[in-house]
Amino acid sequence: MKLLWVYGDFLHPTTRGGQIRTLQTLKRLHSRHEVHYAGLCNPRNAEGPARASEYASHVYPVSHVPPSKTSPAFGLQLVKGLFAPLPVPILRYNSRELRATVDRLRREIPFDHVVCDFLNSAPYFSDLSEVALFQHNVEAVIWERHAENAPTPLHRSYFRLQARRMAAYERKVCTSVKSVIAVSDGDAKKMRDLYGVTRVGSVPTGVDLEFFTPQGQPHSDNDLVFVGSMDWMPNVDGILWFVDEVLPLIRKRQPQCMIAVVGRQPGKDVANLAQRDSLIRITGTVPDVRPSLWGAKVAIVPLRIGGGTRLKIYEAMAARVPVVSTTIGAEGLDVSPGENILMGDTPAQFADACLRLLLDDAERRRVAASAWEHISARHSWEAAATAFERLLTNPRSC
Fold it and tell me: With 70 as the cut, is the pLDDT of residue 223 above it?
């Protein structure tokens, strides 16, 4: 079977949840199908195209450098977002050259199936009618949550504008494609309810259990760890909320509570946390997140904004580290609060859940063991890839 896979990025270095999900799915599809991969490539990132043979038979990189979020060009994009009909995230990665490349490939090669990976890849297609959309989030919901948690009325107004435009664009794309593949039953239901999508199914979230399971007895360097790309607004909002609202409550009983924030490209607001508090460590990009997980007592996911599913939760569980999350942080995942994960949505609830694990070694071991047993039995990447393959080859099953 010949597959054309189109994504606005390459998959190495693998620093984001969406990249991980796509990489693990494609590796398994590539083992039994011919995969043609077309994507945008920053010329400064030679690793992306160089390692694409790990998941693709043929590769078509298109050079593109999006403006840095601290640059005047990005500010201009935000201003343009006040007037352009398309939402800013779609404008940011627009590429006529990649669109022309995809059109040419579809004319020249008889593909059995074509995949548009993420909503912001939709502009690379002149015709979506025979395309499967792999939708990792319900994007409009993320922007609505940004508006709900915006720090000022001006921010709130801008986010609501982007949410309306994103909803209109997302509806148009989701109803134009042949089928939609979501990452949770909850996301699939939202797309049916919000957009009237009829052919939408979901695939489970997987984890590489062998990769994350610790070898030997781990030692604790930090009490708490947060893992996530620190250039993604929901992660930034979550860690700032945790440090400002939750951590002071924890410190009343654990004055020396240490936290590591592990993730690429932390901005000034996040970097300043370590300047304010010597017990907060900001790592920036790390070559391997596993030592940070293995060296923590508890993994936290204090998200108030987001969509899709958070792979970081299953990765922590595979690393035998108990997790405390908000409801939104664990949204769409197959978890059982109180059994294999602890939950809290208010500062007091989240702090109490963290303290419950930090102060009780037996409880920490119980939750970690229950989580590991759960995901080891039900959440392999092979199962996720097989479900994806079924929905791709038989859209009527959606």
Answer: yes
2-206+381-397 belongs to CATH 3.40.50.11540: no
Instruction: Provide DSSP, 173-208.
Output: HHTTSSEEEESSHHHHHHHHHHH--SSEEE------
Q: How far is the C-alpha of 376 from the C-alpha of 384, rounded, in Å?
A: 13
Tell me the CATH class for 209-378.
alpha beta
Euclidean distance between CA atoms 18 and 22, whole angstroms: 6
Measured on CA atoms in the order 175, 177, 183, 184, is the torsion positive or negative?
positive
Whole-angstrom Cα distance, residue 28 to residue 7?
Answer: 17
Per-residue pLDDT tens over the stretch 363-375: 999 999 999 999 9
Selection from 11, 12, 14, 22 nearest residue 289 by Cα: 14
Q: Is 167 helix (H, G, I), strand (E, B) or coil?
A: helix
Q: Where in the chain is the domain with CATH 3.40.50.2000?
A: 2-206+381-397, 209-378
Give Cα 224 to chain centroid, integer Å. 21
Please tell me the distance from the alpha carbon of residue 7 to that of residue 9, in angstroms, as a whole number. Answer: 5
What are the backbone dihedrals phi and psi of residue 272, each rounded to the nearest 5 degrees, phi first? -65, -20
Peptide bond connecting 13 to the previous residue in cis, omega within 30 degrees of 0: yes
User: Of residues 394 and 172, which shows the higher confidence score?
Assistant: 172
Kindly indicate the confidence band of residue 219, based on its pLDDT and cuts at 50, 70 and 90: low
Cβ atoms of residues 223 and 359 within 8 Å: no
Q: How confident is the model at residue 304, as a pLDDT?
A: 95
Which helix or strand (DSSP H or E) is residue 393 part of? Answer: helix 381-393
